[in-house]
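Batch job 17 of 40 flagged for manual review because the log was empty.
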Amino acid sequence: MRRIVLWTMSTIAALVLLIGYRTSTMGPAALASAGDYTAGTTTVTGTGPGVGTFAGDTVQTRWGPVQVELTLDNGTVVGATVLQHPTGNSTDEQVNSRALPILVNHTIGTTADQLRAHGVDMVSGATYTSEGYQQSLQAALDRAGSGTAAPVVGDATTARRTTA
């Protein structure tokens, strides 16, 4: 009798845990958040090529979409906004709250030519987000009239492939 009760209670507990498990791709929380990470300005003073606001492509990563918008003034990045990023679970939020400000801050004040030549370094522990950021950044630079379509890549040897 005791074994039957113990087995039944264990089965019920396992089923409750299984049914309550939430993945990063479930429900409306998995949709990307807009504009949480912004730095710089959207005001430009110059005219001509390399001046204005340019949105990069939406890049689908393993954990969700990433999209970047750049504001360029005379070829220098004066503003950057992450329009979309993964927000499906607390790990996404934790990783992106650390990685995205680093990526945005490394972008601000850099010339478009420097970004094309050297890129933005990857953030360790946020490999997928970093790769999505770089791809979207490259698309924004291409829209800004980059002249060359060299990929924007950082030092991937120091980055670990974990989450986001």
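Reviewer: the log was empty due to a logging misconfiguration, but the result itself is present. The chain has one domain: 27-158. Unflagging and moving on to job 18.
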